[in-house]
Structure formats: structure tokens, C-alpha cells
Specification:
The complex is a heterodimer of chains A (236) and B (445). Chain A has 236 residues and is of the alpha/beta class. Chain A is built from seven helices and ten strands. Helices cover 36% and strands 28% of the residues of chain A. In chain A, the strands form two sheets. A six-stranded mixed β-sheet of chain A has the order 6-7-8-3-9-10, sandwiched between helices. In chain A, strands 2-1-4-5 form a four-stranded antiparallel β-sheet, covered by helices on one side. In chain A, helix 3 packs across helix 4, helix 4 packs across helix 5 and helix 5 packs parallel to helix 6. Chain A is globular. In chain B, helix 1 packs across helix 14. A six-stranded mixed barrel of chain B has the order 2-3-7-4-6-5. Classes of the chains: A alpha/beta (236), B alpha+beta (445). At the A-B interface, helix 2 and helix 3 of A face helix 1, helix 13, helix 14 and helix 17 of B. The complex binds adenosine-5'-diphosphate and magnesium ion. Magnesium ion binds next to helix 1 of chain A.
Chain lengths: 236, 445
């Protein structure tokens, strides 16, 4: 199939130093993600899902193997170049929400834009603010723009985080157990929202989870076991 | 981003303490330094003594120097307000009880004196001589224009003024009308091998003066320069120069450099030898004359500043401590920023920005606090006195009260230095923020 890949991992290895020895976590992970595709990454806790997402999101480097974003090899990018790439091309959603505690919802959502725009921010602030407002509205938080994270429920915080991940219209979304810290009803809502927005905006979504329920809603499921991807079940 | 940094700082009151620390440190530097500036200004006045703005020592010519052509040459110079000739002769005091005078260190200091022949009117116009006369404690003169006048006496000796300190020495018993004798060198020195006969001369004490200066040179005995009672006529004779130096007071606002060149030009126009160079003589500002003392004072201030600046360094260290704590506390948020695309350089700059904000606030506050203290220093001193703290006891110090002189340039420079010191101390936390690994930061609890 000759369709371009938004993300490709080839034979990724990663181990952590533990005392004298090393703890291997990933031992040859390869995967491919097509634009707009929603893929679930299943695996037990501690199987290395977060580690893999960090490598794919250029937050960390593999010991071995390559990461290709939009066809370009980005494995060797320096920290600054990787950061600039993340700012425009990758959206993260974390299990712990990871909002900036001192900023309100709107400011949190605007943060990636500030970072991406650099000095031109001052010219574009008005437009960007409108855009952030629209996205917060889309995640159902039109009435919570000025709330700080501490004044929001867990579900609301994760909605802010989703809005923040989407605000730069990235082609790739990496979500690391986004419902892990939420009760099941809220988790289901958040999951539905994330999937809906990802499909709506045609962002590829790699969703790490150990929640079997998620699999039902994704295009494909990857199983991470013993540091490798063992099976790729097609979605419904 | 600025908002984020400000929010970080705002939600950490301990940061405010660090800022206050810098402010207090800077104020603790600037206030004593201003007091020192004030003392230095007084010291300079004391070190300056009777010196006028410029001091001209004529280059020796073929003929003994005469004041008249110099006076005529300088009279037309616009930048000069007044000038006064001095005829200086070195002398030793002759006493009938040398044992007594040598028994006291103060007395032996005063045994060598300068006989300074002056023209009272010119002296009053060109120097602070009038103030010296006015401050005399032991025997103030009645008429500053005729300070050497003594009661008519057929056998009268020329009148002379001595300093209060000389008059007060031991059992010398100086009283107005009293005669005293000095020994000077003969006007013409004998050939080698011939004995040197001192040329004794006696004066009548006409009054005293009070120098507002440290004893930087020999004590001076003022006498008339010219005329029947004059130093020239009585002691030196027609073959000797009738002046040895000229004190020149410049008009207010005239720079010493301009004054100097105007004087040199006037001498040249009048065909008088140029002082300085191989010919000898000199044209100096009073600061050049007293350079050794002034350098000593300035050195003192420099060391004082250096020592006090350590307070600022210690205070800036507080900034370092709290900013380090800030980085530790905000590790996760820095990781989040990294995930959102913030580069290491930007993360470092963020911390530097926080440090700069704190440091600038501290420097500004310190500057203003010190300025407030200096401008209200009288009140401050009153407060201390009410608490029983007297900084300069009146019976010990000539200085009355705290002098304080605010030099804006100096204060601004030190405030800038304090700011930069604070910034220097934020460098390490900034580097830490820049180099943290995003993944570890995100996992940080
Ligand atoms: N910085 C680290 N140092 C050492 N071991 C680590 C580090 N980060 C993760 N690990 C280990 O790697 C394994 C995989 O972790 P992780 O990727 O977080 O798993 P998951 O997200 O699937 O729960 C775990 O056993 C964890 O303890
Ligand atoms: Mg995980």
C-alpha cells in the first residue's frame, strides 16, 4: 500500500539503566500510522506504552531503531529541533492531564500557540484567542474559560488538555491513557470526545490504554507484550 | 510566557523575600556609601585647605621673579576671578625653652614652620583665608584687611599670625603683642665649607587663625609680603624673588583645564617663562597638588564599596536559592512546556527572565530605599539619637551630624551591578531548567 505514513517506527529498542544492569523495555517495536487513523496501543501496566509514546513524540531517544514523521527520519534531531517539531506537528494528551496550574483554561490551551508563534504571537494573539475559544467550546467548556485547573473536575481538566492538544491542528495525536485517572462514566465521555474530534480533524491518533473497551472504537489495535508488538487486530 | 513566570513568582511569596533581600543588601551598600561620599566631600575641603583652584609656581628666570608682571599678565584673563601671591620661606621656631617645646610631640611637629608672606586683600579674594580668620579661637583679628596690625610701638616688630594650634602649644605662652623669633636660612647661601649662619628674625604676634584642615604640611605663620614690615624687605632682600607661588581662583563654572590654558596663554602673551617642563616651575590644580591624599581617600572608598558589595552578593544568593527551589518545584511544568514544544534555550530564558524580574525589582527597590534614606537622613539620625546612638560624638569629631551625599551615577552603577549579580546567580537554575530531560520531568512527582 503506497499511502504515505504519518508516523513510522522501525525496530525501536529502549532500556533503562537499573543499578549495574539495564532493564530492557522495548525490544524491537515497529509500527505504522496512516493519516487520520485511530490506533489503540494495548498493554499491561509497565509494558512500556508510555516509553514508546515518548520515543514517538521525540521526548526521548531510542537506543536503537528509527522514528519517521511524515516520511522524514527524525531520530537524530537535537532537542531544540525536536521541540520545534512537536510544537506544530504533535499533540499530547496525558493520563495526569499535565495542565499548567497557574494558568486558566484558555491560557493553557493557548500555550502551544504561544510557543509555536514565537515573536509573531503579539500580532496574532487576537486570532489565536478566538481559535482557542472555539476549541474549548468544541470540548464543551465554553463556560470554563477563566477557570484554573484546580477549579476544574478531572474530566474537565482532561477536556482542556484535549483542546490544548488539538489547538495547533497537529497531524498526529499521542494519548497516554487519557482516561486512566477518570471514573468510568467520565472516561467514556472523554474517550468519545477524543475519538470524535480526532476523526473530525483528521488527526492520526495513537491511544495507549489497558482498557479493552477502547479497542472497540479504534481502527486497529496493537498489543505491546514483552517489549514487542505481538498482534495487530483490525478494528470493527 | 511572561504571565506564566509572573504567576510562578506571584504564587511563591518566598520569592518576594529574595527580592527584598537584594533590595536591603543594595540599600545597605548605598546608604553608608552616601555617608562616606559626604565625609569625603568634607575631607576634600579639609585636604584642599587654603589652596585655590590653581597654583602657579613660576619658572625661574635670569632675574629674580617679581609678582608685578605676573599680576599684570593675569589681570586681563576673563576666567580668573582673583589671584594672590605667596612668598614662602622655611623657618624654625626659636624658643628660649627648647626643652619644653621638644618634650611634646605636637610641639616638635610645630617647630618647623613656613613663613608665608601674603597681600591680605588679594589673599581674601583668592582663597578661604577670610574663613580661617573668622574661625580663630584664641586671638581673632579685628580687621581682616589689616590682620598684621599691632599696637604702635617705636621698636615694634612686624605683626604675624600663627595657627591656634601653634599658639596653644605647651608653655610657649603666645599672647597678642608677644614677640617670638624664628630662624631662617640667609638670603644668599655661603660657599661650600663656610658655616651657615641662620638669619634670625622676630615678629609680634598679631592674632591667630584656625585652619580647617589636617596637618598636611608644616604649620604656617602668615606675615606681610611687601613693604616696610614685609618678609621680602626684612628677611630676603632685593636680590631674592618677591613671591614663590601664585594662588589663582577661577570664576565659578570654569573648568580647571580651561583655566590652565588661559593662564598659560596669558603668560606667553606677557613674555613670561612657561612653568613646567625643563625650565622648572609648575601650574597645578589643587587636586594635583594634593593627589596623594585624594588618592588615599578614593582608595578607601573603593575598598569600602568592595566590602559592602559582599552584602549584595549574599543577598543575591537568596535569589539563587529561591530560583533553584522554583526549578525543582516546577520540574513537571517545565517538562510539560517541553512536550508542548518549548526548546531548552527557551526554558533557560524563562528562568533567566524570572531571575531578571526579581533582580531588577530588588535593585530598583534598594535604589529607592537608599535614596529615601539619604534624603531623609537627618530624620534617620534623629531617630538613632533618640535611641541613644550617636554616630559622631560632638566632642570627638569635627564632623557634626551625618553628612550624606547622593551621587546618582554611582548609585545607578551599583544598582546595575547588583542587578547583574542577581542575574549571575540565576544562571545555574536557568541552565538546570534548560538541560532537564523532558521525559524525567514529566514522570516527576
Ligand atoms: N526513567 C526510568 N528509569 C527506570 N525505569 C523506568 C523509567 N521509566 C520507566 N521505567 C520502567 O519501564 C517500564 C515501562 O514503563 P512505562 O513505559 O511507563 O509503562 P506503561 O506506560 O506501559 O505503564 C516500567 O517497568 C518502568 O518501571
Ligand atoms: Mg504509562
Amino acid at each position: 500500500m503506497s499511502e504515505p505514513l504519518i508516523l513510522e517506527a522501525r525496530d525501536l529498542h529502549k532500556s533503562y539503566r537499573m543499578g549495574a544492569g539495564r532493564l530492557p523495555v522495548l525490544r524491537g517495536v515497529s509500527l505504522q500510522l496512516r493519516p487520520g487513523e485511530v490506533v489503540a496501543l494495548m498493554g499491561a501496566s509497565g509494558s512500556g506504552k508510555s516509553t514508546l509514546l515518548h520515543l514517538l513524540g521525540l521526548l526521548d531517544r531510542p537506543d536503537q531503531g528509527r522514528v519517521l514523521l511524515d516520511g522524514a527520519d527524525v531520530t537524530e534531531l537535537g532537542q531544540s529541533a525536536a521541540a520545534r517539531l512537536r510544537a506544530g506537528a504533535i499533540g499530547f494528551v496525558f493520563q495526569q492531564f499535565h495542565l499548567l496550574a497557574d494558568l486558566n483554561a484558555l491560557q493553557n490551551v493557548l500555550m502551544p500557540r504561544r510557543i509555536a508563534c514565537g515573536w509573531s504571537w503579539w500580532r496574532r494573539a487576537g486570532r489565536e484567542r478566538e481559535r482557542a475559544r472555539a476549541i474549548l467550546e468544541a470540548v464543551g467548556l465554553a463556560g470554563r474559560l477563566r477557570h484554573r485547573p484546580a477549579q476544574l473536575s478531572g474530566g474537565e481538566q482532561q477536556r482542556v488538555a484535549i483542546a490544548r492538544a488539538l489547538v495547533s491542528a497537529p497531524a498526529l495525536l499521542l494519548a497516554d491513557e487519557p482516561t486512566g485517572n477518570l471514573d468510568s462514566a467520565t472516561g467514556a465521555d472523554i474517550l468519545a470526545l477524543l475519538l470524535r474530534l480526532a476523526r473530525q480533524r483528521q488527526a492520526a491518533l495513537l491511544l495507549a490504554t489497558h482498557d479493552a473497551h477502547v479497542a472497540a472504537h479504534s481502527d486497529r489495535v496493537l498489543q505491546l507484550v514483552d517489549g514487542t508488538i505481538v498482534g495487530a487486530a483490525p478494528g470493527p | 510566557m511572561i504571565r506564566l513566570v509572573l504567576a510562578w513568582l506571584w504564587h511563591r511569596p518566598v520569592q518576594v523575600l529574595a527580592v527584598l533581600g537584594v533590595a536591603i543588601g543594595l540599600a545597605a551598600l548605598l546608604f553608608p556609601l552616601s555617608v562616606m561620599n559626604g565625609l569625603i566631600a568634607q575631607d576634600r575641603a579639609a585636604v584642599r585647605g587654603t589652596l585655590s583652584d590653581l597654583l602657579l609656581i613660576p619658572a625661574p628666570g635670569a632675574q629674580p621673579a617679581r609678582f608685578e608682571p605676573y599680576r599684570a599678565a593675569l589681570a586681563g584673563v576673563g576666567v580668573i576671578e582673583a589671584c594672590a601671591p605667596h612668598l614662602i620661606v622655611y623657618a624654625v621656631r626659636v624658643t628660649d625653652d627648647s626643652s619644653g617645646s621638644l618634650a611634646s610631640t605636637q610641639a616638635s611637629d610645630l617647630n618647623g614652620v613656613q613663613l608665608v608672606g601674603i597681600d591680605p586683600e588679594a589673599e581674601l579674594a583668592a582663597t578661604d583665608f577670610g574663613a580661617y580668620l573668622a574661625r580663630a579661637r584664641l586671638a581673632p583679628v579685628a580687621d581682616p584687611l589689616r590682620p598684621f596690625a599691632v599696637a604702635d610701638d617705636v621698636f615694634g616688630r612686624p605683626g604675624a599670625l600663627v595657627s591656634d594650634s601653634l599658639a596653644a602649644v605647651g608653655r610657649l605662652g603666645f599672647r597678642v603683642g608677644q614677640r617670638f623669633e624664628v630662624g631662617t636660612l640667609p638670603p644668599v647661601l655661603p660657599p661650600p665649607g663656610e658655616p651657615l649662619e641662620p638669619n634670625n628674625f622676630s615678629f609680634t604676634l598679631a592674632g591667630t587663625y584656625a585652619p580647617d584642615e589636617y596637618h598636611l604640611g608644616m604649620d604656617r605663620i602668615y606675615v606681610q609680603r611687601e613693604g616696610r614690615d614685609g618678609l621680602h624687605f626684612n628677611l630676603l632682600g632685593p636680590e631674592a624673588p618677591d613671591f614663590t607661588e601664585i594662588l589663582i581662583r577661577l570664576r565659578p563654572g570654569v573648568s580647571y583645564a580651561d583655566g590652565k590654558s588661559a593662564v598659560l596663554a596669558a603668560l606667553q602673551r606677557a613674555g613670561l617663562p612657561a612653568p613646567g617642563g625643563d625650565a622648572g616651575g609648575a601650574l597645578e590644580t589643587w587636586e594635583e597638588r594634593r593627589a596623594v591624599f585624594l588618592r588615599g581617600i578614593m582608595m578607601e572608598r573603593r575598598i569600602f564599596t568592595l566590602v559592602l558589595f559582599f552584602i549584595v552578593v549574599v543577598a543575591a544568593f537568596g535569589l539563587f536559592a529561591t530560583l533553584s527551589a522554583l526549578v525543582r518545584e516546577k520540574v513537571r511544568e517545565l517538562g510539560i512546556l517541553a512536550a508542548l514544544g518549548y526548546t531548552p534555550l527557551q526554558r533557560g530564558a524563562l528562568l533567566l527572565g524570572a531571575g531578571a524580574a526579581g533582580s531588577a525589582a530588588g535593585a530598583l527597590l534598594g535604589y529607592l530605599a537608599a535614596y529615601g534614606l539619604v534624603s531623609q537622613h537627618r530624620a534617620f539620625e534623629g531617630l538613632l539619637e533618640r535611641l541613644g546612638i550617636v554616630i559622631f560624638p560632638k566632642d570627638l569629631y569635627v564632623v557634626q551630624g551625618l553628612p550624606a551625599l547622593w551621587l546618582p551615577g554611582q548609585a545607578a552603577f551599583l544598582a546595575l551591578l547588583a542587578f547583574l549579580t542577581g542575574l549571575l546567580f540565576t544562571l545555574l537554575p536557568a541552565v538546570r531548567a534548560a538541560t532537564l530531560a523532558p521525559v524525567e520531568a514529566l514522570r516527576y512527582e
